[in-house]
């Protein structure tokens, strides 16, 4: 897919130190946020919802204490939404393991990891704050230690001043 056609998939694209964040909107809701590699160009918002989302993503990238307030599309299974609510409650600067979250939602760490990987709204639902018991763990269904997505997770944790990752 070339840069032009892939850019058209997003309602806005915001530059980030690790690459970019693609924003997809659907009606009055944010439908998805996507981590994009540096090859993607910034794209001005197409509508009011993507403009609001782009401004909030930029605010978070400038200030890790920024609190999102976006109209998110109702997606995910009841279990995924339960996991995402537990993840959204993790304060900036802290991490929990997959096992910690699993205990909070009365499930198994692997199931929590799957729900994390299915998160449609990274940054807003900060799944980067969930790590493996013995290290960083994977991210967005990617576990290549030197890969783009794990690099994004490292950047986000450093941005939020979490040491050791």
Order of strands in the sheet with most strands:
1-2-3
**What Rg is obtained from the alpha carbons, in whole angstroms?**
15 Å
CATH topology of the largest domain: Arc Repressor Mutant, subunit A
Distance between the ends:
33 Å
Strand content: 15-25%
- N to C succession of SSEs: HEEEHHEHHEH
Quaternary state of this entry equals single chain
Which whole number gives the mean pLDDT?
A: 91
- CATH level-4 homologous superfamily of the largest domain: Winged helix-like DNA-binding domain superfamily/Winged helix DNA-binding domain
How many discrete structural domains? 2
Offer a few descriptive terms.
globular; 5 strands; two-stranded parallel ribbon; 15% strand; three-stranded antiparallel sheet; alpha+beta
Short description:
By secondary structure, this protein is of the alpha+beta class.
Could you explain how this protein is built, in words?
Helix content is 36%, strand content 15%. The protein is of the alpha+beta class and 165 residues long. The protein has two domains: 3-62, no CATH class; 78-159, Winged helix-like DNA-binding domain superfamily/Winged helix DNA-binding domain (Arc Repressor Mutant, subunit A), CATH 1.10.10.10. A hairpin with a 2-residue loop joins β2 (19-26) and β3 (29-36). α3 packs across α4 and α4 (98-105) crosses α5 (109-117). The longest helix is centred in the middle third of the chain and has 15 residues, at 48-62. The mean pLDDT is 91.
């Amino acid at each position: 897919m070339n840069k032009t056609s892939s850019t058209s998939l997003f309602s806005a694209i915001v530059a980030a130190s690790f690459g970019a964040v693609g924003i997809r909107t659907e009606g009055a809701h944010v439908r998805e946020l996507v981590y994009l590699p540096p090859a993607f160009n910034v794209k001005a918002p197409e509508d009011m919802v993507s403009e609001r989302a782009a401004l909030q993503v930029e605010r978070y990238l400038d200030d890790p204490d920024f609190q999102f307030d976006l109209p998110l599309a109702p997606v995910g299974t009841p279990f995924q939404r339960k996991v995402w609510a537990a993840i959204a409650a993790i304060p900036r600067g802290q991490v929990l393991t997959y096992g910690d979250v699993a205990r909070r939602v009365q499930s198994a760490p692997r199931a929590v990891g799957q729900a994390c990987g299915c998160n449609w709204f990274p940054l807003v639902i900060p799944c980067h704050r969930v790590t493996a018991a013995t290290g960083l763990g994977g991210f967005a269904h990617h576990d290549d230690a030197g890969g783009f997505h794990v690099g994004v997770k490292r950047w986000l944790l450093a941005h939020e001043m979490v040491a050791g990752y």
